[in-house]
Task: structure prediction
Amino acid sequence: MRQDWLLNQLPAVMVRDPFISRFVGIFQQIATGIREEADSVPAFVSPGIAPDEFVKWVGSWTGLPVHIDFRGDEVARQRIKTMVRSSANLYRRRGTVDGLAELLSIVTGEKATVSDTGGIFRGDDDIPDRRHVTIGLPDDGGVSIPALTSLLEDALPVNCSFELVVGGRIVADRAGFVSPGTGSP
Result:
């Protein structure tokens, strides 16, 4: 950027006046700093290169579970950044089986399976009394069971029960944490 970019926009008679040149030069110096900062904005909003705390803050705007401390390592950082990068798609699919499966897959790094009793029903169809979701994960991906339970409680409707199955074992349900080794809620 040229040093005299603002002065060059003035009429010639004003530029020749030493007072006006110095006076406008003050504003030019301030504006140059602002323009340089504005040029770096894309680096702050791109999840791939933005500071971690900024990425978490942006992710919180759409209700993403960026508060979960996965493992505090590079894997966790990349999961959060992937979540924020995918936020528009996750938000659009929020409340759906596919959206929940994708969110859990990003959070844990594992392929999640989700099945529910919901659906679209005609007027004469029997509607299930119980709205229930079963979530399966081969592994917790380093995320604690209480953190996953909290995520599910936030993501699912209030009138919906759930069970979380990790590695073939039921580890949590709508009521909360199941003690290890019991195998059932």
About this structure: The first helix runs from residue 12 to 15.
